[in-house]
Fold this protein.
Amino acid sequence: MNNINTQTILLVDDEPAFQRLCGNWLASLGYIVKLAATAEQVEELVASNDFDLVLLDLALPPSFTPDEGLALLPGLAPVPVVVMTGHADRELALRAIALGAWDFLPKPLDPDILRVVVERAMSKRRLEKELAEWRNRAAPDDNTMGLLGISNELSELRSLVRRIAPTDVPVMITGPSGTGKELVARALHAHGKRASKPFIAVHCGAIPAELFESELFGHCKGSFTGADRDRKGLIAAADGGTLFLDEVGEMPLAMQVKLLRFLQSGSFFAIGARAELSVDVRIVAATNRDLAVMVEEKSFRDDLYYRLKGIQMRTTSLADRAEDIALIAQSIAARAKPAKRLTPAALEWLSSHPWPGNVRELQHCLQTASALAGDLPDIAVDDLALACGEVADPPTATASGLLEEQVATLEKRLILAALDDNKHNHTHAAKQLGISRVGLLNKMRRYGMR
């Protein structure tokens, strides 16, 4: 049995028999398990405990519909949430993930799949905590501001952050996807006068249009079907701090009007409320789209655009600052578990790769390559090529074990592709590969894949 001790799981389900069975099974694996059966109990426990994982059944009282559990998701971040439900349909899974769920498991649960999902979620939580500790331990005079790079573009960006952070002017961050726009927003917050207050990030493209107003402004009990209690919105949660509107170009037009009204007055009504609330937030927005063109096309309001744009900052693609790749890659590899190094050949390979997905793609590649490297201290070119779905330089014909090596390389590549195709659902990936789920898990363990 693994001695996990300090890792705590909140199991949310209204069925006592399931609570007992699943709770005892998780406890047998070494986890500390706390139980909740209603949304109110969840909110009370989350307020007083630091959970590492939430296993959440969506059909909770009083309605016993998925809406009860879905309403809890935004407030549970950043703890990973694995949704469990008998309503195993694709649309529900997408709604849950858009609202912050990390994974989705249909009932009845397969213990082997649940074990793997829990281990992966716990690993994610550990990495997040260690990264937060690593950032907190950074020297006070560290001038990178979390924006790693030696290029002129990064130096100018950091300089601009230092100038703007102490002010309250709105900021619009533009740039390609995956270039660290949220990192810039967090740097503005961390180095400004609101650093001790909340930083609330809202991904405007991930919230369904029908839920947007409730998520942003909150609602009162009884204001619509399923609203069984008052709920504070994300704007109110950011009071005194920074509200980061990521991918603001994806915001529905109807919500643009309501957001503009709030930006003009600093106050708003929660859905169903008669009393107006006033909050003090700094607005930072980001987009990878050309909002000026969207204004011309009437898909984005011109008055909101001018209200948001304030000071404009731009992040650049990795292709335009290749000299930063090695530094970023070494930082990511050093945070792997266990920590990894990159061989000189691997650094050269990384620096010559185009990275159309920018830092996000680089991070994903290195995380996968680290898993492929297993317990070895170094990440090699072969690990990187396999993680990126490419083929490294072929081995020579005189290499020993050539056939076995090529078969293993091909198997790992096919497994990774199947996992990506099926959003890391092991049962579906195994079916795509034509093997059993147990067979897939055995192969993943053999190759050191997580």
Remarks:
- The chain has three domains: 8-135, 152-316, 322-446.
- The domain at 152-316 is CATH 3.40.50.300 (Rossmann fold).
